[in-house]
TrEMBL record:
UniProt keywords, alphabetically: Coiled coil
SUPFAM superfamilies, sorted: BAR/IMD domain-like (SSF103657)
GO cellular component annotations of the record: cytoplasm
Domain annotation BAR: ranges: 8-252
Gene3D superfamilies assigned: Arfaptin homology (AH) domain/BAR domain (1.20.1270.60)
Organism this protein belongs to: Rhizopus stolonifer
Lineage: Eukaryota, Fungi, Fungi incertae sedis, Mucoromycota, Mucoromycotina
Protein name stated in the entry: BAR domain-containing protein
Chain coiled-coil ranges: 16-43
InterPro entries documented for this protein: AH/BAR_dom_sf, BAR_dom, BAR_dom-cont
Keyword presence, Coiled coil: yes
């Protein structure tokens, strides 16, 4: 086999056994599916990354550095927990500001309600992230490591058996007449093993390609997304009229103030 492989590598091999066209077509489709899975796994890996939509580096601004330096003298000061999502960060800003506003009842009320809604949206997003990993990202990884890898392993066996068959054929052509029967028997045995390997790999590749897993995974992903956006919509849909009511009240107060002037 080593000799046969080297000859094929350097283009000096003769009579290389052709694989069936159906087999080659299946190989191409499996490679395309595997590439798709790898790309989806790569993209959705972000859902397993903490704070991915509000990274630590994002808050590392000059203003924050000044604030940190100002608090360095207080050794007992504890670093606040980093917001888990951008929505949580917005909620924290609104909540902290609301507590500092004092007599500004209108803005404090608006910020408090906004903070509560933002935290709820952030929690819903954390649930979505967890569900995407569990119901989409992980199943794709499992498929890559099991069924697709199983088909690829069978393909490697086909490659080995084809090399063995072609090596046996080469040996047969170079065998003296008095040893042809034994050489012919080795060719026939290698041919049977090659055919069996092709049949096994063909079956496994068809199984991979006909598996409804990618359709199921995509549907799961959409369901998770839908649940998140639906919950976020409900939260924000409830918040909006409350903010608009505060806005209208404040506009009335503002107009009255302008009229007095």
């Amino acid at each position: 086999q080593v000799r046969q492989y080297a000859q094929e590598k350097f283009g000096t091999a003769e009579d290389i056994t052709e694989l069936p066209q159906e087999y080659k077509d299946l190989e191409k489709r499996v490679d395309q599916l595997e590439h798709l899975y790898h790309q989806l796994v790569k993209v959705t890996k972000v859902y397993a990354t903490p704070n991915y939509d509000y990274p630590l580096g994002f808050t590392n601004t000059v203003t924050n550095q000044i604030a940190l330096l100002a608090h360095e003298h207080n050794s007992s000061a504890q670093t606040p927990e980093h917001p888990k999502t951008l929505s949580h960060a917005m909620g924290r800003v609104a909540s902290q500001s609301a507590s500092e506003l004092g007599k500004d009842e209108a803005l404090r009320a608006a910020l408090s309600r906004f903070a509560s809604a933002a935290n709820k949206v952030g929690n819903a997003k954390l649930t979505m992230d967890h569900e995407v990993v569990a119901r989409f990202h992980t199943p794709l990884q499992t498929c890559l490591k099991t069924s697709i890898e199983g088909a690829n392993k069978a393909r490697r066996v086909v490659h080995q058996k084809r090399l063995a068959l072609d090596a046996a054929k080469t040996e047969y052509r170079e065998t003296p007449a008095n040893k042809l029967d034994m050489a012919r028997s080795e060719v026939e045995q290698a041919e049977d093993q090659f055919v069996g390997a092709v049949e096994e790999a063909t079956h496994l590749m068809k199984t991979v390609l006909e598996d409804p897993e990618p359709y199921r995974d995509l549907a799961e992903y959409v369901q998770v997304q839908l649940a998140y956006f639906r919950e976020a919509h409900e939260i924000l849909n409830k918040l909006l009229p409350e903010l608009q009511e505060i806005q209208k009240t404040q506009e009335t107060v503002y107009r009255a103030l302008m009229d007095d002037e």
